[in-house]
Amino acid sequence: MGEITAPESPVTELAQRVRQFVDERILPHESRLAAENDEARALARELSQQARAAGVFGSFYPMRLGGRIASLADYLHVAEQEGRSEYAPGILGADATLDAHMLDRHASPAVRERFLSPLVRGEAVSSYAMSEPESIGSIPATMTCRAELRDGRWHINGRKWFICRSQVANFATVVARSGEGPVAEAISMIVVPTDAPGFRVVRPLSLLGRWQGQAELAFDDLQAPQDHVLGAPGQGIALMQERLGLGRLLRSAHWLGQAQRCFELMCQRIHSPKGQLARLADKQLARARVYRVHRGIATARALVRDAAGKFDAGIANGIEVNLAKLAASDAVSEAADNAIQIMGAEGLSDWTALAGIYRGARTTHILDGADDALVSTIGRQLLMATRPGERFDPAYPSLRVSKAAE
């Protein structure tokens, strides 16, 4: 009986081309890209140009802006291949996907022309400035950065930190308190150019001893035109929630790509001459590691796809998104840890990608929503949805939460 394969579709074909590009043109240069210096940035720009020429750049940008895939569920197949290297999402334009969608939906014509058009052409880098040194990221009410509208211009003052790509970004979306009323009506998102007077990079910030493009920023009476606000003034909380839902799923898909790569490296070592010499395939603990890693990836993948399908259908999916993010974070962490254990001391070195993936995997439990905060939120929401008198449907848990909150 012949091998059964799924019929090839345009999405499958694109995913295969993305994987080929990542494996052949990015993976061989990871050690150079990790340097975070001018040479590394020049190499990343060169690879981005090659990606555009190969038709694998910006796959999930809005369709009217050159995107190739209309649904998030379909894009997941491509996103996993983009995530095989921690450097690929930046090179392939995937890091800009979230900002491309947010600006496409909510930006004024002036912002679209000045920032969005260069972004989707690969000529600009975006950044998102939310976290602050003196506030609690999961509690917007503690935010101290302020934006005051005077004479048709926003005047922004405050600090942000651990902001991705901020040292190389051409513009940033700044989240700031713009009013004195309830927090749901007092936060705004304002797009600002990074070369404007008052925008200052205070210092780069390392994560687990590794530079990954994060920095602390200061805004000293930074000014931006009134029409640089996204949506309308005071809509920041709603936009943050919209951004988090899509953003966590995009990140989760990329983490699954890294997890799958760790799984492959682990299996390659087990089947290698060195692994055969140690008879790794015959050892129950090695088999158990292979099983646990595969199960974690398969579980997280199913949760991500479930949340993405509901996103595409416009169905409430807050619980599903957070579950998917937590599961994907666990999957990449467990995959990296087990692959290193099988690889031995070599896995701790810079000779393989595992050490970098391992350190990056640990940050996933903090960035884009700390585990503790998400677990607490999910527990609260599930208890709300299962209160006496509620009709809880485990296949659509967020629907009951939404109705119970009304």
From TrEMBL:
For the Acyl-CoA dehydrogenase/oxidase C-terminal domain, which residue ranges apply?
A: 234-383
What InterPro entries does the annotation carry?
A: Acyl-CoA_dehydrogenase, Acyl-CoA_Oxase/DH_mid-dom, Acyl-CoA_Oxase/DH_mid-dom_sf, AcylCo_DH-like_C, AcylCo_DH/oxidase_C, AcylCoA_DH/ox_N, AcylCoA_DH/ox_N_sf, AcylCoA_DH/oxidase_NM_dom_sf
Q: Which UniProt keywords apply?
A: FAD, Flavoprotein, Oxidoreductase
Q: Which PANTHER family does the entry link to?
A: ACYL-COA DEHYDROGENASE FAMILY MEMBER 11, MEDIUM-CHAIN SPECIFIC ACYL-COA DEHYDROGENASE, MITOCHONDRIAL-RELATED
Q: Which organism is it from?
A: Stutzerimonas kirkiae
Classification via Pfam families: Acyl-CoA_dh_1, Acyl-CoA_dh_M, Acyl-CoA_dh_N
- Give the quaternary structure: Homodimer.
Q: Which family does it belong to?
A: Belongs to the acyl-CoA dehydrogenase family.
One biological process GO term for this chain? Answer: fatty acid beta-oxidation using acyl-CoA dehydrogenase
State the Gene Ontology terms under molecular function.
Answer: acyl-CoA dehydrogenase activity; flavin adenine dinucleotide binding
Task: Supply the name of the protein.
Answer: Acyl-CoA dehydrogenase
- What is the required cofactor set for this protein? FAD
In what residue span(s) does the Acyl-CoA oxidase/dehydrogenase middle domain sit? Answer: 128-221
Boundaries of every Acyl-CoA dehydrogenase/oxidase N-terminal domain copy: 13-123
